[in-house]
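Database export, one record per block. Field names are fixed; values are copied verbatim from the stored entry.
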Amino acid sequence: MSFCLSPCVPAGVSSVQEQRERWDRKRTRTGRELVQSEQRYCEKLDLITTYFVEILKAKGTLRQDIRESIFSSIKSIHLVNQTLLGHLENGNFGVGFDQFCPHLHFYTAYVDNFQTAKKILAVQLKKNKAFRRFKKLQEARPEFHKLKLEDLLPLPLERIQQYNNFLRDLTENTSPDSPEFQQLSRAVSAVSEVAQRIQDNARSHENHLQLQRVQKLLKGRKTRLLAPGRWYIREGWLKMVPRKGTETKPKMFFLFSDILIQATRCSPMHPTNGDKLACQRVYPLKECTVDKVFGHTKSQGGLISLTFSSAKLLLMSSDQEDINDWYRSLCLAIGRLKTKSTVVHRREELLRPPLRAATHSQQRAPSPSQIHSRKRVMASEQGTESSMSNYRPPAAESAGSASKKIKLSEAPSGRSVENQFFDPLLLPGMREQIKQWSQN
């Protein structure tokens, strides 16, 4: 026996209607949250423009260039958002954001200047006593609700992230047949670009701080880490297995997007550099190959081999998860470098005939003057070859080079590999791998 809730309405129509009702409920809830948060946002923007920007401009406490560096385009942002708030309060979400997005360049300028604004504000609070006193008096007003200027300045960056979420929810709960759907979709794309810019700037700033931190850790100023396009990846202590020696040596390694730095701890007795590291070598990753020598299975620890154009490293760790992370990070960094250095030829260049064939196809009979000039060139070349064949290097030079070759080829191999490593952390499997690596 079948049962139907509404005999007058087919089941398919009922499900479509229920879906539309759910969309309307979610859209109404999202719109209400958007309007309420926009009202609070505009109130806080009004605090900045009224009690800081305008009064500072009238009093002259800060120079114009310093004031503009701190507050950037905050006044223009306030005016644009007041217009947007009027559309949102009337329920015109699509129209409001369609008119708001062409003014997103004010937000872009504010985003790009934000780190500079923080630095200049910190400098002024440290050196400008009048501005420090003015800021304290303004923040004591009841309208601020104990908010500081440092809490208000990041608001436009946070608001862009909130717009990104609100617009996606509104678009998902708007019928594609509605004309407002296209307006909201365009707004999602435009706001997402600014949100991505905020994230990229934050990552760049964090990377800059990491480069500065590592630079301060290294003794001296010979190693310059602050280079364009360089990214910090990771750091850690690894044991370096020497080709000849009695034990492994712990070294600190810093991995960046283009280089690997090997460092060791300075003497703790040093008066100024006791807490720093001394840079021993900088290895470029562009010509590096990395291989996992030991640690493929669930064993304790592992070994990785790094081969450079002028050096070869064997690095060990008793923590297999740590050595696996190093292996993955090195492979990713090297892979990205090789991808960037790959030259992509256009199809026309690949199909272009070789120059030699073109030259032979266009070759003509030489004139008598050209034959005469060729004979003179050949005669001069023969004289040069005869003079070079009579040249002999000095005896001292040839003897020195021969002695260097003998020293390199007949260098003593030392003790056997099995007796070179007495580190208790070395497992039998590691010793066999090290033996093969040393023989190669």
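Remark 1: The domain at 232-267+275-341 is CATH 2.30.29.30 (PH-domain like).
Remark 2: The beta strands are 232-240, 249-256, 259-265, 277-284, 289-294, 302-307, 312-317.
End of record.
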